[in-house]
Design goal:
- With 462 residues, this protein is of the alpha+beta class.
- It folds into three domains: 227 residues; 75 residues, no CATH class; 112 residues, Alpha-Beta Plaits (2-Layer Sandwich), CATH 3.30.70.
- The protein is 44% helix and 23% strand.
- Helix 1 runs antiparallel to helix 3 and helix 1 packs antiparallel against helix 6.
- The protein is elongated, with a radius of gyration of 43 Å.
- Its main location: secreted.
Length: 462
């Protein structure tokens, strides 16, 4: 910018201060406008960040309670959880059962014959299968050792439930080693089978006549109320409608059966419902804080929040209320009101425990159906909230627009600075010209006065 000495030589004015004041006065309204817009935009971006965090926390809570174990009308228990655990699904009915476990399901573990120390194999293939299932070919490279074969199996069958290891006799290392394969597939008929093709790999065959089975695949065997049952897995489904058993150990000799009880899950449902209400209220508290209006009480004034009157938050709240107020089709629980849940003036939810207790006594299954499943309240809320929080969703789109506004503010500041610099240069030029003119006029005046004084003096002497 142009500069000049602080005091004009002709006028005696502080031109620097005068120009600075005029430029500042010209820039002040626009600067104040941009400052207000930036502060408002920054506050909105920060508020949207808080809103996103609150919505994500709400979604996490919905996922945690939108499960069969959280919202189930019945609960199951085992008198001996070291023997077996049990969970109840929506198809379960109240009752008691006596459970004895006589055998746990096991997976196959098999060993090849003895392979001499240092033996290598030519290139070939090991066809590995479980029971009658399709075999998987494991390619063996030329000159492979037993360790190389193990590595090939573990690499090529990774994630398929079959692993290989080597078993040797430390007391007699010259005896040779065996290739041992283990499966994770339990159930009768699921024994490991190995067929070596080419390269001398037949020495690693495992079947009913070659190699040996350290453990045969077997079913779990158990009694429910004296009825003999079996399962290919220790996780038993279908033995009793709606119940899943996890068998953990065989019933010790001389020990009685474990009692499996299935009863109403009033306490669990109440807890899950309270978790939902708490999660929802936490979200509403955040939206209320972000949209508070300006208030004055006495000498105290509270400023409006960053998103007061914001259409995005208004749309979010309308969506939440709409989902909460939807009436389910069919008999049973059709609305939150049927469960004793109502909305307060602030938008939060509250539970009438007496009405909820009555509803659970009369129709616990109706509550489960209302909240869970693809069309249940929890899934609908999760889907709708995701529209706000997802990548390129409603909030991110609005935030991008605000960031564009910040960029425009910066550009307007740059333009303003350029205009004010030009104005300052122009003002300095004008004031300098004026000061120079005044100086010249003063000089001319002083010269005339001097001439007049000289004339007067000469006339006075005559």
């Amino acid at each position: 910018m142009a500069t000049i000495t602080s005091t004009g030589i002709g006028t005696g004015l502080n031109i620097n201060e005068l120009v600075r004041s005029m430029v500042n006065a010209q820039a002040a309204p626009k600067t104040a406008q941009l400052d207000r817009l930036k502060a408002s935009t920054d506050s909105s971006i920060s508020a949207y960040g808080q809103l996103t965090s609150a919505l994500e926390a709400f979604t996490t809570s919905l996922k945690e309670i939108n499960t069969a174990s959280a919202f189930t009308g019945l609960k199951a228990s085992s008198s001996n959880e070291a023997l077996a655990k049990v969970t109840a699904g929506n198809d379960a009915v109240a009752g008691t059962y006596q459970l004895k476990v006589t055998q746990l399901a096991s997976a196959s573990r098999a060993s090849s014959g003895v392979i001499a120390s240092g033996q290598t194999f030519s290139a070939g293939t090991l066809n590995v299968s479980i029971g009658d299932n399709q075999s998987v070919a494991v390619e063996i490279a030329e000159g492979a050792t037993l360790e190389d074969v193990r590595q090939a199996i573990n690499t090529q069958l990774k994630g398929q439930g079959i692993t290989a290891n080597i078993m040797s006799n430390p007391g007699n290392p010259q005896e040779g080693s065996r290739l041992v394969l283990s499966s994770t597939t339990t159930g009768e008929g699921n024994d490991i089978r190995v067929e070596g093709v080419g390269g001398g790999l037949a020495a690693l065959n495992v079947n009913d006549t070659q190699g040996s089975y350290l453990t045969r695949a077997a079913n779990a065997e158990f009694e429910l109320d004296g009825v003999q049952l079996s399962s290919a897995s220790n996780t038993v489904e279908g033995a009793v409608s709606g119940l899943t058993f996890e068998l953990l150990q065989v019933t010790p000799k001389g020990e009685g059966a474990a009692t499996i009880g299935v009863s109403g899950n009033k306490e669990g449902l109440t807890e899950s419902l309270q978790k939902f209400v708490d999660a929802y209220n936490k979200l509403i508290t955040v939206t209320n804080d972000l949209t508070k209006v300006s208030t004055t009480e006495g000498s105290t004034t509270t400023n409006a929040s960053a998103l007061t009157g914001d259409s995005l938050v208004r749309g979010l709240n309308n969506m939440l209320r709409s989902e909460l107020n939807k009436v389910a089709e069919g008999a049973g629980v059709q609305s939150l009101y049927d469960l004793g849940i109502s909305t307060t003036r602030s938008g939060t939810l509250e539970i009438d425990n007496d009405r909820l207790s009555d509803a659970l006594e009369q129709n616990a299954d109706g509550l489960v159906n209302f909240f869970t499943g693809k069309e249940g309240l929890l899934s609908r809320l999760e889907s709708q909230v995701n529209e706000y929080t997802k990548y390129d969703g409603i909030i991110q789109t609005q935030t991008k627009s605000l960031n564009t506004t910040l960029g425009n503010i910066s550009k307007q500041r740059e333009d303003l600075d350029l205009r004010m610099a030009a104005l300052e240069t122009s003002l300095f030029a004008k004031f300098n010209a004026m000061d120079s003119l005044v100086y010249q006029l003063n000089s001319t005046g002083n010269s005339l006065l001097s001439s007049l004084e000289s004339l007067n003096n000469s006339l006075g002497k005559k």
